[in-house]
Amino acid sequence: MSLTVAVLFAVLLHGRVTLASDPDPVRDFCIANTDSATNIPCKNSSDATVEDFIFSGIKSRGRFSETGLASIPVNVNSFPGLNTLGVSLVRADFEAGGVNVPHFHPRATEVAYVLEGKIYSGFVDTKNKVFAKVLEKGEVMVFPRGLVHFQMNVGDKPAAILGSFDSENPGLMKIPAAVFGCGIKEELLEKAFGLTAKDISKSLISCMAKTPQKVLVACKLTSSECSHPTLPCFEFDLPIPTFNLVQ
Question: Contact 100/72 with Cβ under 8 angstroms?
Fold first, then answer.
């Protein structure tokens, strides 16, 4: 009898874990309480107004980064009205040649809609296969949860996308910043990526500089098989003045 109960518990637990996501709301809405003086998670519903459900921060583009990307996230941290609703957005604008470096969202699938321009867009699956294509205005691409993906404006005019997520706080991990983020031992990076100490030093100096150089990752397009033994589908070539596709 105890074995049966244990097996049933394991099955139920496994099902709960595999289906885990943002929890379903248990009320109409729960506007995040930004008053740090209280421990109440939600603003009193009787005090809610229409303004709690409106965000105007993406009417204009943000400031462009060194890689030519201006990104404005619209998640629960900037828009308390999203709290418990399990959705969020991002507006991303690209200068000509601008890049959204390889990155992933640990807690959400992303659906990206091209508002204007031509965006080379893609992701890499766990078998190191690249799915990439140039998207034009009006086209949509989905990036499965947790998979590395990337975007680049391949047109000669500005481009923009609107990304939606199935999480109020999808999270963001940028590969170049995470790898060369001034914390991992240089010896490990040298062995992992086959880089020289000189290359590592350049990237670490860039990381600490006030105006960092572009440390970018190029994805091979010619094959779904990956040539690098420890970093499939990506190779480093430091420094890189622009983001060039490797043919």
Answer: no
